[in-house]
Amino acid sequence: MSSPVFSGLRTPRRTTRQIQVGKVPVGGHSPITVQSMTTTKTADVEATLAQIYALAANGADIVRCTCNEVEAAEGLARIVPRSPVPIVADIHFQYKLALAALEAGVQCLRLNPGNIRKAEHVKIVVREAKDRGVPIRIGVNGGSLDPDIEAKYGQTPEGLVASAQRELAYFYEEDFHDVKISVKASNPALMIESYRLLADTVDFPLHLGVTEAGPLPGGLVKATAGIATLLAEGIGDTIRYSLTADPVEEARAGRQLLESLGLRERVGLDLIACPSCGRAEIDVIKVAEEAQDALRDLKIPIQVAVMGCVVNGPGEAASADLGIAAGRHRGHLFVKGKVVRVVPEDEMVSALVAMAKEIADTSIDEVLSHADSGAAAEAEKDRRLLLGEKGDDANHSEERVELIRKTTA
Length: 409
What we know:
The chain is of the alpha/beta class. 43% of the residues lie in helices and 18% in strands.
């Protein structure tokens, strides 16, 4: 069972507006969320999805992907409907790519005021985001301030906050308030003072981070110094560790920090599930809820994935300790991405529970060593049959891709 939350922090959390990033609330009285960013080429859909699932399995509530070219926007159209968490598109310089990302269905945009400087371009994006109900993060970076702001203030807290305020002015002109803000710097002391000033200036939710913190262990120390200091002061609504490392380390660090401060509940089971799509062979929500109910009380610290189809399931959730994917009325049980057993569809949840207990009693390596030798071949057979029935584009992603190409033409 879940352990109760205890927070020894004496400073009340700062009250902010609340926004919705997909189904994840940010700010207000909602839990502080963990974010990370993929390091794959967004155009490489399968690799990016696999990383997104790995991040979700390790504590990320929201994931950001770069949208730096048309191919990346087209990739987002294929990624968003299969992602287990909301996707933020990271936009630099080219405002048309922000429009393309919105066309792809992303749940949030991140705009750097130092990169898209023309007011009319910012307002075009804001109007489109407003029409779609998509929030925007104003992502100020100490290393890329507007030249005139840097000339006036230098890289100071006043300069970072002035950059955010200029961008907000454009948003206000369009009556857009669905905003979160970050004022990141690679110097933790500068970052801390910038967020303190910003927290005294606006009531929007704040995204915390020390940008370019560097590799482990130094990057972990610098990021924690900045983020934890502010959290202890009641400042911050969503966080991201920016490490020169596997992004899974960012998600783990963020989750562990929040748990260690008593700001997120510590749980034994970490269950992730795909949001379902055109290939889903089962009621994913129903099976995921049944699996969660069956596994929750076992007190096994295990990551479990419930996937709607065998076409992509085992690969996308390969970092989960244990998972099951549906295919042609059967469940394909996999451990660390390797299919180890095939069971009837009505035995999917009971098979998950039995396998979780087996892993707890022995080890993942032991379970893998006793995998059913024919299970992988059976899964591949079902995968090919399912592709034959529903095609390569069961989510109709290519229609969005065509709209993106028209938008960016």
